[in-house]
Each structure stands twice: as structure tokens, then as C-alpha cells.
Amino acid sequence: MSDSVATVDPANLIASSGAEETVSGCHAGADTMKDAAAKAGKSEVLEQYAKDYPTGPHDQPQSMCPAFGSLRVGLRMRRTATVLCGSACCVYGLTFTSHFYGARRTVGYVPFDSETLVTGKLFEDLREATYQLADPDKYDAIVLINLCVPTASGVPLELIPKEINGVRVVGIDVPGFGVPTHAEAKDILAGAMLSYARSEVERGPVARPTSDASGRPTVALVGEIFPVDAIMIGRMLEPLGLSAGPIVPTREWRELYSALASPIAAMLHPFYTATAREFSSAGRALVGSAPVGHDGTAAWLANIADKAGVSAEVLAKTSNALLPAIRGALQAAPIDARITLSGYEGSELLVARLLIEAGADLRYVGTACPRTPWSDDDRNWLESRGVHVNYRASLEDDIAAVEEFQPDLAVGTTPVVQHAKEQGIPGLYFTNLISARPLMGPAGPGSLAQVINTAVGNKERFTRMETFFAGVGTGATSGIWPASSGRAA
Ligand code: SF4
């Protein structure tokens, strides 16, 4: 146990107003928070985030609190305790959202106030909570997440021991002013855990990886894909002499070893920059894009075969057996509609490819995530078909695309869908209804077409509703009216 008692320097976060002092949060402004964090010794972390998660053309797309991504990854891991350190209002929102999305584990919380922040007692509270939680019978790991104010105040998670009673401790800073999206926050924790596991492997023997029973080399699958997609990918890899490895972010600690032992990491979701760095440091080959649709699957299999040293003959045999089935699935589930697509999950370009191969007239795809090498194949394929690909898209960009292209269906985030519906255009939420369904291999086309065509078919219903409610809530039918002679004026 470290004897050093850290003190934080929250001077820049304490707003003095007469006798009262308050801790500034979101409303302090990103620049104030960044400045405070840098002064508090967090420059290195923030500089790494700035490199890993480049912003621009917009500073930060409008999406949920980024820390949700890390929290979700922690809560999905077995035998892992996840503890938040941040303002109560942030923790309330994050806890609510995580349970809304089906978390079945407790969210730990170490609260603070101005006094514990100023005196450094918050750090002592965090350390004490970590020691209390560190029961090896219950946990393999404890994840500590600094939210905005503790990060800006420099609460030094790195001073908490990396291991207590045999329980690993992984501390990360996930401030909204340094991490653009919740997608990238998933990468921060996945990367931190892979880094920890890699250092364990380098130090000596670790628990035996949960290896594939077939003994074939595995391909680690990076990205929170639908479980059926992992099975589908496994079937596609089998004739190449390979197997599907663990999905990263993993569901248990031992899977991190299996992932690192995989000779190839498939970067199915392209924003996992820190994760990619860990695989590269372990000497693993990386492959971008994903097996979606006919062309995407053909190119992906060829790239995997190349990295795995599979012969051209075996690749051709595999492709010839698989690709006609995908072509058939696309023809059996056509989509005849003009669509705009946007989201913040990072899989938007893959969905766009599938929509186009199914026959959709897609003009625009916006993603809150940044451009990385792992989506280059998808971007090139889409742009060669005249699609406008917009990385770090803002809400305004996405809405402008709906205005310009007047689609039969707008797939997007909640405010984009709301905007479309107000105009009588059917809309589908990307996160709940598109990203959480099978997309890969022969299963993808049918699954996507079903939900898209049902939504497009609602156009007439939307038109009727728009006509029925025309004018309601605007002009003379809105607002509060002073009563006169018992009637609204
Ligand atoms: S952690 Fe930061 S970004 Fe998230 S809700 Fe709190 S202040 Fe906002």
C-alpha cells in the first residue's frame, strides 16, 4: 500500500461567490477544464487522447456523456467492479443510462464535495474504497473512472496500487473535455485492460487463455458486435483454417489473454485506436473493415487470408462457396428507398455499405467518430459510389442532410429522427434498432432489410398523422393564454 497521500489542486475549479464556494462542472467550459487538468498534472493523458481521438471539423459531436462508454465496458465484464468518481449529477445520469441499457451490475460511486476535493480527502476515500472492494473471491479487477471534475482536479488514480490482494486495479480518466464520444471511451478502457494484460503476459505465466477447442489460429474481433455476427464470422473463417477469437471489449479478464494470443485482430469497429496500439505492440496483424455484404466480405476475407498466409486456392474456394449466398440474400431482401444515415456507434459506414448493396439510394452517411485507417476501405467504397461520408458529423450536418435529400427514411440519432418525424419522414434510431442486429455475412441483408422496409412502409401513416395534427402546437394553438370570459383568448 502506498503511503503517499495525494492532494489535488482544484483551485481553478472552485468558483467563489461571496461566502459560498461551488465546484464547477460541465458549465465551467471545456477550455477551463482542460486548463485546470493540465495544471493538475494530467497533460500527458490529455495529449495522448488528443492524438488518439482527433477532433475537427467539429470540436465535439453532440452525443451522450463519453464516460458511458467506459462504464458500459466495465459493467459488462464478469468479476469486475466498476467505480465512478465524479459529480453526483453525472453519476446519476450515467447510472440511469447504464441500467436503461440493461446493466445487471452495481455501479460503484465515491462521492465528493468541495472540501474533500480541496484537501485531497477524495483521493484517500477512493483508495480506501478500492481496498475495501479488493476481494479476490469476488473480483478479478476493479475499474476506477475519473469523470470531469476529478480529472480536471488531478485526482491521481495512478497512485493507487495496480494490484491489491491479487485484484487488478485499472484507473482511467474519462473527461468529457478530452474524449469526444462514448464510443472512444470504450476504447480507453479496452486499451487500458489490454495494456495491463499484456504487461502480465510479459512478466510471466498467466491463466490459460480460453482458447478455441479446434486449435486453429484465432482472429480477435474488435467492436461490440451482435453475438450472431461472431458466430457468422467464425463460420466464414473456418474454411480458411482460422477461428473467431474473443470479442474485444471482452466479457472476462482471461479473454484478454486469448485476444492478445490471436495472430490477427479484426478492427470491425474502426475507432479502437488504443486497442489497436496494444495489438500492434504485441506483434499482431490488424485488418480493417468487416465482412458486410458481397464486396465487403470478399475484400475482408482476402485481407484476412493475406495476413494469415492462406493460399490463393483456399481463399478462392472459400469465397466461391460464400459470396453467391450473400448475393442471393441481398437479392432476396431488396431495399428500394432513399435513405440518410447517421449515428455515433462507429459502425455507420458498414451499415451504409450493406444498404447500398441491397439497392438503397443512400446519399449521406455521418458518424460522430473520427476517420481512422480501419475504415478507409469502407470510405473509399462509399465515396466511389457518390456517397458523402462525414466523419465527426455534428447534429446540424445530419439534419442538413435530411433537409437536402428529403429521404424516404432517416436513420440517425434521437434528435435527427425527431426532426425527420416532425416533417412526416419515417425515422429509425441507429443505436437501438440498427446497430443491435446482425450485419455480417449472409445473415446481414435479410436482418437489415426487414427493419428498414417496415419503417419505409410507414410513410403513409406519417403523412396521415402530419395532416391530422397540422398546425397543432404552433401559432395560436400553442402557449399559455390568459383566460377571458371562461375561454382561452
Ligand atoms: S462526466 Fe463530464 S461530460 Fe459527463 S455528464 Fe459529467 S460533466 Fe458532463
Give descriptors for this structure:
single chain; 489 residues; alpha/beta; Rossmann fold; 3 domains; five-stranded mixed β-sheet; five-stranded parallel β-sheet; 46% helix; binds iron/sulfur cluster; oxidoreductase; Nase/OxRdtase_comp1; BchY
Task: Give a verbal description of the structure.
The chain folds into three domains: 170 residues, Nitrogenase molybdenum iron protein domain (Rossmann fold, 3-Layer(aba) Sandwich); 111 residues, 3-Layer(aba) Sandwich (Rossmann fold); 136 residues, Rossmann fold (3-Layer(aba) Sandwich). It has 489 residues and is of the alpha/beta class. It has a five-stranded mixed beta sheet with strand order 4-3-5-7-6, with helices on both faces. The chain has a five-stranded parallel beta sheet with strand order 14-13-12-15-16, sandwiched between helices. It has a four-stranded parallel beta sheet with strand order 9-8-10-11, sandwiched between helices. The longest helix has 23 residues. Helix content is 46%, strand content 16%. The termini are far apart. The protein has 19 helices and 18 strands. The radius of gyration is 25 Å and the shape is globular. The N terminus is likely disordered. It binds iron/sulfur cluster. Iron/sulfur cluster binds next to helix 3. The site of iron/sulfur cluster has 11 residues, from helix 3. Keywords: Bacteriochlorophyll biosynthesis, Chlorophyll biosynthesis, Oxidoreductase, Photosynthesis. It is an enzyme of class 1 (oxidoreductase). One of its GO terms (molecular function) is oxidoreductase activity.
